[in-house]
Design a protein that fits this description.
The structure is a single chain. The chain starts with about 30 loop residues before the first helix and ends with a helix. Strand 1, helix 3 (about 75-80) and strand 2 form a beta-alpha-beta unit. The protein folds into two domains: about 15-90 and about 200-210, Rossmann fold (3-Layer(aba) Sandwich), CATH 3.40.50; about 90-200, Rossmann fold, CATH 3.40.50.1860. It is globular, with a radius of gyration of 16 Å. The chain has helices spanning about 35-40, 45-55, 75-80, 95-100, 115-120, 135-145, 150-170, 185-190, 200-210, and strands at about 65, 85, 105-110, 130, 175, 195. The strands form two sheets. The chain has a four-stranded parallel β-sheet, sandwiched between helices. It is α/β, with parallel strands linked by helices and about 210 residues long. Helices cover about 40% and strands about 10% of the residues.
Length: about 210
Amino acid sequence: MLETRFERVVGDIGNPATFDFPVRYHVVEGATVDRVVTHTDMQLLEPFVDGALRLEAQGVDAVTTSCGFLIVFQSHIQAALSVPFASSALLLVRPLIERTGARVGVITASAAHLSADHLEAAGCPDVVVAGMDDAPAFQQAIIDQTVPLDQEAIAAETQAVARELVARDGVDAIVLECTNLAPYRQSLQTHLEIPVSDITTLCRSLIRHDRS
């Protein structure tokens, strides 16, 4: 988990009530939104590896993170673990394209900072991207962490970004890179009538695979 202050509502990966199986959390000290999203601070790799190993030692079946921008750490952290590791919902994009042939769009916390390196690490360099960069309720609550989280406002902003993505690029499936957009997945899917996936989708698939 990143070190954050905003409310973790049901649906967010940071709220244990989001899942129908037990979860454990480890907060990586110093892993701020600024260091992870804005600056891709590679000095955080070792603390994240340490946190993942601590969780594995506690007996977890799989490990994930609370920020999709950590996709750049995917191969490094997985190499250190013996349990499955999924750093980002971006890992869903390529299998979705290969399985269904869908034109997939990604909604990210910041299109300005989601670089070619992030997409390359996820194996989806040519995917269509839209960002929450110009969504004030989201930016102030999640990125700047200067105001309380307003679920209705963020839901409306997310829907506006998604509708523009569908209209502009003709996507027929969406993956939410940002873990904090997961609470709005079902609403998006209902209103847009296309498949929408997020980090909790990936977590559930990991757990089902582990128990099958």
